[in-house]
């Protein structure tokens, strides 16, 4: 069974209650949305020039489009894009986007993260200005490829962001054990090797990494800035 088929099978029914159930433990999503560095048209750059257009923002693993809808409502004026491996999830996402009148703002496409190209997936002639993963990267089997592809589809000098589970090192041990057990029921896992990989990307000179740990290391927000051209 391929990855897309596996995702469809996993979310065939749970997609209808996904947002309701996930809001209790996918912490930090709105904090990330508030903190992403986004530039509107006419933004003045350090060299004195101004941006000609608003940033194009992509979410990889957008699921029900909950984050894209919140982003559009809290920080309007940006063209938003979302991809997901599950067409079943995108069906729910499209209905949600239509319901709030954001179909002209949010573009959705079925695609595996490692197959993303700005041109091939969305018909764009330029890379994205901002890319983010919200609790999706740790669920992507080919997460290291997804990171490299995200970097390749990002403009020089811009950032991709990640919010995901951390090691819960500063929380009570019983809570950490219970959380990991509970999350495993939803096929969600903390992947320490993922953060280590991003740190190695930083050491290899692929970009500048900044990490903020949240809620007793329950989660973290990482930003990774691609070197300027």
Describe the structure.
With 229 residues, the chain is α/β, with parallel strands linked by helices. The chain is 36% helix and 21% strand. A seven-stranded mixed β-sheet has the order 3-2-1-4-5-7-6, with helices on both faces. Helix 3 packs across helix 4 (66-74). The longest helix has 13 residues, at 87-99. The chain is globular, with a radius of gyration of 17 Å. The termini are far apart. Mean pLDDT is 89; it is low at 10-21.
Write the topology of this structure.
Blueprint: H1 3-11, H2 18-22, H3 29-35, E1 57-60, H4 66-74, E2 80-84, H5 87-99, E3 106-110, H6 118-122, E4 128-134, H7 143-152, E5 154-165, H8 173-184, H9 192-203, E6 208-214, E7 219-225
Parallel strand pairs: 1-2, 1-4, 2-3, 4-5
Antiparallel strand pairs: 5-7, 6-7
Give the topology string: H per helix, E per strand: HHHEHEHEHEHEHHEE
CATH classification, class level:
Alpha Beta
CATH superfamily: Vaccinia Virus protein VP39
Instruction: Describe the main β-sheet briefly.
Output: 7 strands, mixed
Q: Which value, in Å, is the CA radius of gyration?
A: 17 Å
CATH level-3 fold name: Rossmann fold
Question: Any idea how many domains?
Answer: 1
Can I get a quick summary?
The protein is an alpha/beta fold and 229 residues long. It has one domain: 3-Layer(aba) Sandwich (Rossmann fold), CATH 3.40.50.
Which terms would index this structure?
36% helix, 229 residues, globular, alpha/beta, 9 helices
């Amino acid at each position: 069974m391929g990855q897309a088929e596996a995702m469809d099978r996993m979310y065939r029914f749970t997609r209808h209650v996904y947002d309701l159930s996930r809001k209790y433990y996918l912490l930090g999503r709105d904090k990330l949305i508030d903190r992403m560095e986004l530039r509107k048209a006419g933004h003045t750059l350090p060299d004195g020039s101004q941006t000609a257009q608003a940033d194009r923002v992509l979410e990889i693993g957008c699921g029900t489009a909950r984050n894209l809808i919140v982003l559009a409502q809290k920080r309007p004026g940006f063209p938003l894009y979302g991809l997901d491996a599950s067409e079943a999830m995108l069906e729910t996402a499209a209905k949600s986007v239509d319901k709030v009148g954001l179909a002209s703002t949010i573009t959705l496409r079925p695609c595996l993260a490692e197959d993303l190209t700005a041109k091939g997936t969305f018909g764009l002639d330029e890379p994205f200005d901002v890319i983010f993963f919200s609790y999706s990267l740790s669920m992507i089997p080919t997460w290291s490829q997804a990171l490299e592809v995200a970097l390749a589809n990002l403009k020089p000098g811009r950032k991709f962001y990640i919010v995901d589970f951390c090691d819960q090192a500063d929380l009570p041990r019983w809570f950490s054990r219970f959380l990991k057990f509970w999350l495993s029921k939803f096929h969600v896992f903390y992947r320490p090797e993922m953060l280590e990989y991003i740190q190695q990307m930083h050491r290899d000179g692929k970009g500048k990494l900044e990490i903020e740990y949240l809620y007793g290391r329950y989660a973290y927000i990482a930003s990774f800035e691609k070197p300027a051209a």
